[in-house]
Amino acid sequence: MGEFLVAWGAWSIHKETFLENNEVLSELRLRGSYGTNGTLPTDNFGWRTLTGFTNKYMEQPGGSIITIADPNLQWESNYNTNIALEFGLLQQRVTGSAEFFNRNSRSLLQNVPVSMVTGFLNTLRNVGEINNRGLEMNIGADIVRTKDWRWNLSLNGTILKSVVTKLYKQAGAAAGQDIIWNDPTGGDARAQFIYREGESTLAFYGYEWAGVNPENGKNVWYVNDANDPNAGDFNFNGRGATYSYSKANRIIIGNGIPKLYGGVNTDLEWNGISLNLNFIYKIGGQLYDGAYKDVADDGYYWERIRSEIYYGNMWTDNNKNGTQPQLSGNDLTDPMQYSTRQLHNASFLRLKNATLAYRLPARF
Fold first, then answer.
1. Count of domains in the chain?
2. pLDDT value at residue 312
3. Has residue 348 been placed in a domain?
4. CA 225 to chain centroid
5. Which has the higher per-residue pLDDT, 149 or 327?
6. What per-residue confidence (pLDDT) applies to 1?
7. 81 versus 308: which is more confidently predicted?
8. Is the N or C terminus of the chain more exposed, i.e. has fewer CB atoms within 10 Å?
């Protein structure tokens, strides 16, 4: 990665003559920066087709194409702007900051799915442009500060909006066409996303699960026909629906980016004994639980033991209000696929770290 900082500057406003004798404001600082940086493609020779000679043909040494070239492959470039205001009050008893950031990324590097007749699943390309912007906030205060007691409390949070602003023309596709991609962690537990102009960079893409039909315990999927909201095999909750996900249309079903995330830290000390608690939190956004598909399916993995939650909420003749479908070994396809059935609210508050300590007196 190469980087070139274009400009940086700061203004310590509290040192100006008009704030010299201010008893409340002990620090006020404005700073800003603008910079650019580039990211090299992960494939060292992604711009040219390579041949490997690790294969054999009829027990004889042989070669084969091992990469699909993109002759137009180039660096991903980023343009960063930051503007922040830092402050301190009451002789630094209260401190904080607010920082606006904006990052435009161009020639975004992404593995793009290609036809499997090529012998490959995807290839690395420059697919488009995205914008990340938001606000980082931090405030902390010594709520109690005496000879024997000290209690400090601080809170930080980040608001982030990440949007696909432009998609380039790709081979066989027009400019602005959607790009469907998978979480690169691999395996059957991968989430599926879509790049679409004007949408989140972590937009989940899949089928909308309507729930369980209380009359028969079957899975129901909303069809989501773009031309007719009532299209489907039957009507469910006022919308067109079907029992077969293959008849449904995939749509954007969620967003992996939270509305707000950050941490809370509290530090209490008395005569050298201190207790520090560090919490992290997230508000909004969804997460995809791929493992849930393996422990709560309704018959595809017939031989597996399912989670206790599934059995407790499964539809039966005696529990027609069950939120999980009836267990059936006749299902020859994986009914959950990439759907809202595997999406969950990502909001949480978690104690990340707790520390109890004693500070030895200076004489020791």
1. 1
2. 85
3. no
4. 27
5. 149
6. 45
7. 81
8. C
Predicted confidence band at 188 (pLDDT cuts at 50, 70, 90)?
low
Q: What's the CA gap between 354 and 284, in Å, rounded? A: 25
CB atoms within 10 A of CB 280: 16
Long-range contacts of 176-184 (CB under 8 A, 24+ apart): 179/110, 179/112, 179/113, 179/127, 179/128, 180/113, 180/205, 181/110, 181/111, 181/112, 181/113, 183/288, 184/111
pLDDT tens across 92-114, in order? 899 999 999 999 999 888 777 77
H helices, E strands: number in the chain: 2, 23
Q: Please give the average per-residue pLDDT across 68-86, as a whole number.
A: 88
In this structure, are residues 281 and 263 in contact, taking their beta carbons and an 8 Å threshold?
yes
Q: Which two tokens stand for residue 9?
A: 């500057």
239 domain-assigned? yes
As a whole number of angstroms, the distance between CA 240 and CA 244 comes to: 12
Euclidean distance between CA atoms 280 and 263, whole angstroms? 4
**Greatest extent of the chain over all pairs of C-alpha atoms, in Å:** 89
How confident is the model over 47-59, as a mean pLDDT?
75
Domain assignment of residue 230, given as a range: 210-247+314-335
Q: Judge contact between 83 and 99, C-beta under 8 A.
A: yes
Find where tokens 């059957």 sit: 188
Residue 340, classed as helix, strand or coil, is helix
Mean pLDDT of the chain: 87
- Find residue 358's DSSP bridge partners: 273
For residue 261, being part of any structural domain is answered with no
Helix H or strand E encompassing 60:
strand 60-65
Name every residue whose Cβ is closer than 8 Å to that of residue 15 and which is 6 or more positions away in sequence.
none
What is the rounded average pLDDT of the residues 336-350?
90
Position 148 in a domain: no
| Residue written as token pair 């809370």 | 264
State how far the Cα of 236 lies from the Cα of 224, in Å rounded to an integer.
12
